[in-house]
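Deliverable D4.2, example record:
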Amino acid sequence: MTAFDALLISKTPDGQSAEWTRLTEDDLMEGDVTVRVTHSTINYKDGLAMTGKAPVIRRWPMIPGIDFAGEVTASSHPDFKPGDEVLLNGWGVGETHYGGYAQMARVKGDWLLPVPAGFSRADCMALGTAGYTAMLAVMALEALHVRPGSGTVLVTGAAGGLGSVAVALLTRLGYTVAASTGRAETADYLKSLGASEIVPREDLVGAPRLLAKERWAGAIDVAGGTTLANVLSQTRYGGAVAACGNAGGMDLPTSVAPFILRGVTLTGIESVMAPKPKRSEAWTRLARDLDLAALHAMTETRPVRDVVSLAPEIIAGRIKGRTVLEVA
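Output generated by the structure prediction step:
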């Protein structure tokens, strides 16, 4: 039976502990496809799970990591065979089902997607849940008729993983993009991804007005809280805001004014349990619409064992762009 390395998080009297350990395939959870994991990544949600800052993990002990890419080694699922390159985002992996911070994984084949043509496994994890969610947010704005000619689209938390991919995607699709960040030193980086305007975070964190000056045709927000409330109050008539994060808090101190006086739409982006056709469309769009050079420019590659030290860094907002974790 194949032995492999895995990061196991266990409950302790004082909270939780993380330890690299040696497991075998007998230790894996149920599923009809076994994958040799070669790459993973770290998202904000992974940071919450690793640090215990939020109750992401709901089964103990747990191998964290909500994403992975790798090669099928065994399968009884009709869509996959040994040697296939696959990727996974979400479905409770890293929360209730052993996740990607291990050299092997066993999951339901219905949770897997083939690696898109033109992408490597590393490219898929350079995107990860953050990039896949960014694509879902762009698709939501398109469905709500926010077009490149509609006006400027704002991206909050723009220097983070989701924000960076969103800026690059929107730029490639022809949108005019404003990037909001609390890190002034990332301005040149964001402009290199295509942002035409840098909006200081402090412009969006004060007490929100019921209605402020109309600035944005649309927005992708990763913050929530007062940031999202300010974005809504500044969104133009008929605009739309895609909410896909809570880095600034779970509360939303707004009013009905943007919705009933300006016809603004607030749409939520949920990526974990999104149906397979929708996530397949998102990955097809990423392969078609994202500039790989821009993706590589925003990506750093690290060994998976660095994830323990990276977790508090991503929670503190000190990681720029995307990080690929080499697992194999």
